Amino acid sequence: MRNLLSMEHLTNDDVMMIIERAAQFEAGELPALAKSYQVANLFFEPSTRTKTSFEMAERNIGCTVIPFDTDFSSMIKGETLYDTVKTLQMIGMDAVVIRAKEEEYYKELLTGIDVAIINGGDGTGQHPSQSLLDLYTIYKEFGSFEGLNVTIAGDITHSRVAKSNATALKRLGVNVRFLCPSEWSGEFEAHHSWDGLLEDSDVVMLLRVQHERHCADECFSKEGYHEQYGMTFEREARMKKNAIIMHPAPVNRDVEIASGLVECERSRIFEQVRNGVFVRMAILETILKGR
């Protein structure tokens, strides 16, 4: 692993290697980097969890985090992403974590660039580090993937989390089902009601309704969505005994999930945030050791 761009590029062995290393970090094992590396985080879309989680992970494994403010970079003046990353390479950067609005923005960086590229989210394409932390969360809970039923519910067409997880979970032997309004299914075949999904789901993974990616004049009712597709108290009560609720966050409370369920016993929403630091430590260490 010299870069992390898409879950489609990882094998099952790659995934399990990251999961096992994340577990070692969570157990208190120290990082194994021979030197300190220089890393910058280029986030061209808003982020709380991913950006700060990467920054914490970078510091935890001994990296020097070089501040980069996208609002005051030369890209505002018209500089290309390639030229920006090439400049950071020549200054001495070893790796960059990038979130951008454009899908597959990283393709222009695969030739002529000699820093590690870690995709922190590309438009509505992929979000591999989120997928890996979701997989780690599921693995910690169940000890395996084979034969699990995972229902992914919400704004499928705009969700890089759904696309990343669908790729990885299916390859690991998980039965993945999708639930969403018909106009939000995108490339996936989806259910449009909870019938036949809820009672046998081991994991219900809720997705944020991405209001910023919908047309401004689109009619949307928060109450109507919650009633038809959200995790209500009544639906939570029907879930199987050991099933868990996940959400990549940020959460629209009382839209995707009732506010009182965000921290309920079966919710792993904030545990996912915690797990993300260990997983990103594992990602960074693996990539930097390979350079």
From TrEMBL:
Cited function: Catalyzes the condensation of carbamoyl phosphate and aspartate to form carbamoyl aspartate and inorganic phosphate, the committed step in the de novo pyrimidine nucleotide biosynthesis pathway.
GO CC annotations on file: cytosol
Gene3D superfamilies from the UniProt entry: Aspartate/ornithine carbamoyltransferase
Pathway(s) annotated for this protein in UniProt: Pyrimidine metabolism; UMP biosynthesis via de novo pathway; (S)-dihydroorotate from bicarbonate: step 2/3
Residues reported in the UniProt entry to bind carbamoyl phosphate: R49, T50, R99, H127, Q130, A249, P250
Gene, per the UniProt record: pyrB
Binding-site residues for L-aspartate, renumbered to this chain: K77, R160, R208
Family: Belongs to the aspartate/ornithine carbamoyltransferase superfamily. ATCase family.
Catalysed reactions, as listed in the record: carbamoyl phosphate + L-aspartate = N-carbamoyl-L-aspartate + phosphate + H(+)
Protein name: Aspartate carbamoyltransferase
Alphabetical keyword list: Pyrimidine biosynthesis, Transferase
E.C. code: 2.1.3.2
UniProt organism field: Ureibacillus yapensis
